[in-house]
DNA sequence: CGGTATCCTCCTCGATACTG
DNA sequence: CAGTATCGAGGAGGATACCG
């Protein structure tokens, strides 16, 4: 109970077997499109397929479908098909998806806050490479 | 100023031009190996190349070098070559790397806490697919 | 020890075309 | 509208061999 001077970190590590599984899960959620779709649904609430597509112009329809399906499978969001013509499909975050979105919030804020620092670091690095 | 009932979120959104850059940056840092190396260096402090390699047995030497270089370029860590024989190279997080590591902390905790929920969601989803 | 360099193989991802 | 199906290019990433 004495000599640990760094209580700033609450991100302590865990059972190695669990860690492998966690690492695996990280590999799937730490994906650019997943993060972006989480953000959009968190921000705008329930959205239809085309609404999401318009909100993320860079994504191909294929990737959008694929990512939404995987997120549905992982319990991040619900997909509701309304039996009308023309078809209408709503996507909404589940509570699980919302908690993940909140967890990623810190990363978004970090990226926003440190954009310039990273840019600067790159320039310095590249300059050093040329010099050598 | 009235009817917005959800002040729980402090992850508000931003200038679209900035957002594109942020999204880009996210694409580079939201990488499995980057997250894992950040964790290891945060947890264990300065490490040599082979120490890291041993700590992450699944990574190939190529990916390890590549990821470390990119992180160095982005200002996440420093690479110190000691001119001795045999060669010795130390890797250590910079303050910037440490803040990112902390930002990812929430995601690690989420993954650890929700592993079973995700597993369960997958089983349910897969069962539903077979049924249909 | 701490890398590069090279080759080779998946597998992601985009583009296009078609459907209920 | 909201997909599925198919094709094809390109890059990620592993295996191996060699170097300072």
Automatic annotation (TrEMBL), chains A, B:
Q: Which SUPFAM superfamilies match?
A: Winged helix' DNA-binding domain
Highest taxon listed in the record's lineage: Bacteria
Q: Where in the numbering of this chain does the HTH hxlR-type domain appear?
A: 11-119
Keywords annotated in UniProt? DNA-binding, Transcription, Transcription regulation
Q: Name one GO molecular function term.
A: DNA binding
Q: What residue intervals traverse the membrane? A: none
InterPro entries to which the protein is assigned, alphabetical? HTH_HxlR, WH-like_DNA-bd_sf, WH_DNA-bd_sf
Which protein is depicted? Transcriptional regulator
Organism per entry: Novosphingobium guangzhouense
């Amino acid at each position: 109970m004495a000599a640990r001077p760094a209580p700033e970190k609450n991100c302590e590590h865990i059972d190695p077997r669990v860690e492998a599984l966690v690492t695996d899960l990280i590999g799937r959620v730490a994906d650019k499109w997943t993060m972006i779709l989480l953000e959009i649904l968190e921000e705008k609430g329930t959205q239809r397929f085309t609404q999401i597509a318009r909100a993320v112009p860079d994504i191909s329809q294929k990737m959008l479908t694929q990512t939404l399906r995987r997120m549905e499978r992982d319990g991040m969001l619900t997909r509701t098909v309304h039996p009308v013509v023309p078809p209408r499909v709503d996507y909404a975050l589940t509570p699980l998806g919302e908690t993940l979105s909140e967890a990623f919030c810190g990363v978004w804020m970090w990226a926003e806050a440190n954009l310039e620092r990273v840019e600067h670091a790159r320039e310095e690095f590249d300059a050093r490479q040329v010099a050598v």
